[in-house]
Known about the structure:
- By secondary structure, the chain is α/β, with parallel strands linked by helices.
- It contains 18 helices and 15 strands.
- The chain has one domain (9-338, 452-481): TIM Barrel (Alpha-Beta Barrel).
- The chain has an 8-stranded parallel sheet.
- Helix 2 (21-29) packs parallel to helix 6 (102-120), helix 3 (41-50) crosses helix 6 (102-120) and helix 7 crosses helix 8 (164-172).
Amino acid sequence: xxxxxxxxxxxxxxxxxxxxxxxxxxxxxxxxxxxxxxxxxxxxxxxxxxxxxxxxxxxxxxxxxxxxxxxxxxxxxxxxxxxxxxxxxxxxxxxxxxxxxxxxxxxxxxxxxxxxxxxxxxxxxxxxxxxxxxxxxxxxxxxxxxxxxxxxxxxxxxxxxxxxxxxxxxxxxxxxxxxxxxxxxxxxxxxxxxxxxxxxxxxxxxxxxxxxxxxxxxxxxxxxxxxxxxxxxxxxxxxxxxxxxxxxxxxxxxxxxxxxxxxxxxxxxxxxxxxxxxxxxxxxxxxxxxxxxxxxxxxxxxxxxxxxxxxxxxxxxxxxxxxxxxxxxxxxxxxxxxxxxxxxxxxxxxxxxxxxxxxxxxxxxxxxxxxxxxxxxxxxxxxxxxxxxxxxxxxxxxxxxxxxxxxxxxxxxxxxxxxxxxxxxxxxxxxxxxxxxxxxxxxxxxxxxxxxxxxxxxxxxxxxxxxxxxxxxxxxxxxxxxxxx
Length: 485
């Protein structure tokens, strides 16, 4: 097989802050595609600054932002020298809607810039950013911040991102862009859009930007073909995720059926048509239980450019997951007793969601039931149209009566978990609410989590690095095939 011009390994863009800049940097420096998660970066930057910015990395990146007065405002609003007092709640922020304020836009743009800038700092490797198409309100400003930082790849899943190529190209040209918002119960012909004008936002100080490669994350060759034909601009390839991948999964095709454990059943209609993928003549990467050297080789023999791997990287040293959780998971992977449940209702997004069964997390039914329902981050809220034609916002994981007052049904709330707060708890940024328990974590990963012990460098090791993962995954790839971007 001839050398390929793309990386062979794509590190998955897992969860809010799990694929953080130290992980993406480590993978990129190892010669593959390191990816930062673009989810909730505004909240993550704010909370890291409120903790005092240990190591000063965030403020170092902020000093490189091309509009210094904007970066200075972010620091002034959020930074606490020495960090907030233990037990003190993090600053609450207004939830994003279809008409964000200048302050909200500034935090989004700067936060995405910081994460990509730090991942790219000090080396010439390639770095990507991963977004969820389902989370629409931050998208335009987030992309602008990542582009300013020189992101090399944009990946997007959990939806059908046909509009994103034109948005990227428009932003790179400094033009106003828009994004149609999905609205539940919208009247016939009614359309609601987000708008972002780089010139207005920067007061005509638009930095130079270069178009990154765009890789939609899909579950089928049918969707890939549609995106290749009907997207608003160029698509440069695809990541094809199977149902064993961590995080959000595509629902099974056809009517939803559950197995005896209550998980969605995937059948032959959900199997990937590799011949159809190859016929698109675009590079693609296979994902979902492709985290072994043998599977990397197999994927390339099947015509893929390589693989996307998430779970192995999620529990490595550089991952953003709390160290205590990583130690538990790595230790338990040695025994092979870890269990992953594909929960059809946990996520407010409506997609099946992989949940690792760990005590003292929201995977524990008792812990879940003890948590007071609230929605104070709002990334997975749904837009709905009010009687006057304006937009309202509701989340099936919020307080049930509040959800029903907004037109939702009680049935839609059953089993829904506040993933937004849980994912921030996963990375040590849990909200403390006075008089209540801090937010609990909820760990998502792929079905092959028990295999992560294979990445330990020796039998006495209790942890492993991103470099250990890359080295093992690439161990059977011939030297001549190891070309990267």
